[in-house]
Structure formats: structure tokens, C-alpha cells
Write the C-alpha cells for this entry.
Amino acid sequence: MPHKLTLIPGDGIGPEIIEATKRVLEATGIKFDWDIVIVGQGAQDKFGTPLPDYVLESIKKNKVALKGPVTTPIGTGFRSVNVALRQNLDLYACLRPCKTYPGVTTPFENVDIVIVRENTEDLYSGIEFAKGTRESDRLAKLILEATQREMKKDSGFSIKVISETASKRIVKFAFEYARAKKRKKVSAAHKANILKFSDGLFLTAAREVAREYPDIEFEDVVIDALCMRLARNPQQYDVIVLPNLYGDIVSDLCAGLVGGLGVAPGANIGDNIAIFEPTHGSAPKYAGQNKVNPVAMILSATMMLRHLGETETADKLEKAIADVIAEGKSVTYDLKLDRNQPAATTSQVADAVIKKLKNQGG
Ligand code: NAD
């Protein structure tokens, strides 16, 4: 039986890295039945909404989706489809492994960090009040009543919401992941010294959950100290669990430690549904040039194969990718020491990975 999956090519560089990944996946010999759907501006133009119901229905039915990046208009226009998908489908855990592959030039070796980011609340709850609206005036009045502090008339508000339920759920996910993958330490990052009622709640919840996992080391770390330590000595970290906004920022930082966004895969996981997508966005300036690195997208597909129980194929595919990177001949511009050196195209990287896969088979 083929695996029935929802495929979201996305926009910008999305369609080209998805095409490369689809070819690689099909070359593994595993059969897939793709339900291809559109979101973002294309869906807005065709259906009048950036996230049509049929997309959510397809993902709910298939339970697994492979997704390319989707552009979010900045400041105005529709809200992020990426955030909406995670919230609508309750994909509460964002998993972003950041690992150094030999051959990638970085100042650090042997980094192997997994970021577990809470995906549904915090400053990404989407509860915002624009400057000068009736709602923001009402909120300012409420704040004045409750705290005797007067907000400036031209203030906008984005609300940071952290619940005990979601905090416990994500920390539990991090510990379960650590246990399943035989990892040794979970670090919970926060700013509880300043944000006592939001991050403070997250920290209390993390400490409580940690007590259920005496076999795994636990520590908490203030977010700014974490960033400094990651920049100095990233090897001291193993699994890091964070609220949404810090998780977003720190996963890009960790991607930078291991060679950049071109090699940073990811997954958004709920109790029954999972969407696999790279950490990077739609990089519109490179769209249609067959230039960007498909490795983050293909590594995300490797995570998907593991999720589908195709562990052996996932291991083979990861090895094929690692071999292509280690060889250094068929890699894109971002993995070249000198960016003026000739580099492989997106589709040539896929060809090289497929060739390595075939060689392993023979
Ligand atoms: P981005 O990740 O798209 O690109 C930033 C830069 O990183 C690029 O200009 C490029 O230099 C590099 N880069 C990214 N992916 C690469 C790859 N595969 N190979 C080589 N280099 C790569 O970030 P951005 O410019 O801040 O965002 C662009 C758009 O993507 C925005 O609309 C944003 O909202 C959206 N976005 C979507 C997702 C998602 O779909 N999950 C995630 C992040 C950003």
C-alpha cells in the first residue's frame, strides 16, 4: 500500500525544493500517493482564502503532510498560513534538529542539538490590537484600571499567552523525545526573572514535568544566557525546549551553528497529525532560479519517513545526503566556502542524492 500524504508545495522556492524532494523520495522505492494542495497567495487568488478548508480536510484525513515554505505578507495582508496550520491542527510541538554534517564549513564540530519549540501560544497566539482602534483603546483602559499605568495613545498590542497546560504538554514531549532517542539532557529556556506570570509559569511547569524523568538530566537557562552559551560552546546542549518565540529565534541561531538554513529540517507534530517542513522560509529573491539548497527539505522528508515507520529507508537517505555533503562536489552555493565558486543547482543536488541511494542499493 502506498503512503497517502498531503503535499503542499508552498510558494517562493517551495515548489522547486518540493519537486527535488519528491523525486528523491520516489527514488527510495517506497510508494507514495500525493494529494497536492495549495495555500497562501495562490489559494487567496483562487478560493478567496489563504488556507482553504479542503487543505485542512486533506491533512486531517492523511495525518501526514510534506510542506514547502509559504510567504506571509509583512505588516499587512493575510495572517501567516504556517501559524494558522499549526494552531488549527493543534500541532503543538515544533521539532528542529540541528546537526553538523562533515563537509559543512562551520566554526563548530559535533553539534547535535534538537530544538523543541512550543507551537501554539506565546506571542504567536495571534491576539493583537492595532494602534488607534476601538479595541486597543478598550485594552488601554483595562490596563489603566488594573495597573494604574497609562499606555501611550499610539500603542499597538501583541499579547503573550502562556498556559500551564501547553507548557506541561511541550516539556513532556521534549522528555519523551529525549527518552525515545536516548538523549541525555533537556534544557528549558525562559525569561522567568522578568516575565514572571508567563515564562514563570512555563518554568514551574517544566520543573514539575522534569521530576517524572529522573533518568534524564534537566536544567533551566535564561534565554539570553542560552544564546551566549550556544555561540561559545554549543556542544554542551542536547535537547532544548522553549516557548514559541524563543524557539523560533533559537532554532535559526542553531541552524547557523551547523551551516545555515539550507541544512536545517523540521516538523510540526500533534497527537495524531504531523507536517514536515524545513526551518527556512520561501526566500522569494531566489524563487524559480533552481539555485537554493534542497537539503533542509529532503532532511525534513527523512524525518517524515521515520514518522511513517520507514526507519531503514530514512537511515539510507540520511546517509546518501551526508555522503553528498561530505564529498562537496554536488552542493549548492550556500555550502561553498567561497560563494563565487561554481555550485550545484537544486535539481543537481537531488540527482546526486538519488545516485548515492542507487549505489547503496547495488
Ligand atoms: P527565508 O528563510 O525565506 O530566507 C532568508 C535567507 O536565507 C534567504 O534570503 C537565503 O539567503 C537563505 N536561505 C533560505 N533558505 C535557503 C535554502 N534552502 N538554501 C539556501 N539559502 C537559503 O527567510 P525570510 O526572508 O525572513 O522569509 C521569507 C518569507 O518566508 C516570508 O514571507 C516569511 O514569512 C516566510 N517564512 C515561511 C516559513 C514557513 O513556511 N514555514 C518559515 C519562515 C519564513
